[in-house]
Amino acid sequence: MTAQLIDGNALSQQLRGEVARRAADLTAKGRQPGLAVILVGENPASQVYVRNKVKSCGDVGFHSVLEKYDASLTEAELLARIEALNQDPSIHGILVQLPLPAHIDDHKVIEAISPAKDVDGFHVASAGALMVGEVGFKACTPYGCMKMLESIGMADLRGKHAVVIGRSNIVGKPMAMMLLAANATVTVCHSGTADLAHHTRQADVIVAAVGKRNVLTADMVKPGAVVIDVGMNRNDEGKLCGDVDFAGIRDVAGWITPVPGGVGPMTITMLLVNTLEAAERAGL
Ligand code: GUN
User: Fold this and answer.
1) Measuring from atom 1 of ligand 1, which residue has the nearest CA?
2) What residues are labeled active site?
3) What is the model's pTM?
4) From the CB of 209, is ligand 1 less than 6 Å away?
5) CA 146 / ligand 1 centre spacing (Å)
6) Each residue's pLDDT tens digit, 75-119
7) With a 6 A CB cut-off, is 98 part of the ligand 1 pocket?
8) Who contacts 209 (Cβ-Cβ below 8 Å, separation ≥6)?
9) Domains of the chain listed by start with CATH number
């Protein structure tokens, strides 16, 4: 069997088209969706991510502001900027790019963002809303993974076993909650799991979100399973690759997401979806 690809670029394009149409409607009513992106320091990967986020805003007709600060910015100064953006009616979403310099407490900064503008879905209130099934912003990467499942007719996972590899606050934990909300039976595996393959071999859906190459190989996958690869690594030749052995697993799985062109573009797309929803809710 050769797995079918879940094309994150094509799905993103389709979703961004809908976002652009709804953004145009809001703009016509005098409420153009607005995103503020804050970058502190010179982390090269962060600079690329932030540039892509701001560019994507322009592509769907959002207003965006990029605030770049020197790594010497104090925590108090950053908190003051967030407070000003919380009060700014032209800004519906606030994103502080992580990681922050070591002298700034990430947690304190995220908690300073108004939950109504927390389009990253990282605030404790957003995580709590997801846990208890209330309205809130969902973390963009796992939200994008759910949209990919939806796109292959797997919106409802009743009777399916989903295995998440990784337990980060940004991906693994919210992913498990979203899969549970979709009625899957969910197992979360991590660095303390004794026999990872034992779990993954039983899975109908596997989400790999570890940040390490070849965490999942063909012998660990049940024939026909759906494999979603959140990883973003470099191989020995410097080429972008995910967490799973794509070439090997492709012969076993039913569906697989490529890297690049899989989950990556979906993350920014869901940021746009969240920002649009923040702007729509601001009028309620
Ligand atoms: N750093 C790496 N990924 C992310 C993300 O999704 N949001 C923010 N704010 N920072 C990140």
Assistant:
1) 98
2) 53, 97, 120
3) 0.97
4) no
5) 18
6) 999 999 999 999 999 999 999 999 999 999 999 999 999 999 999
7) yes
8) 141, 164, 165, 166, 168, 171, 172, 175, 230, 231, 243
9) 30-114 (3.40.50.10860), 140-264 (3.40.50.720)
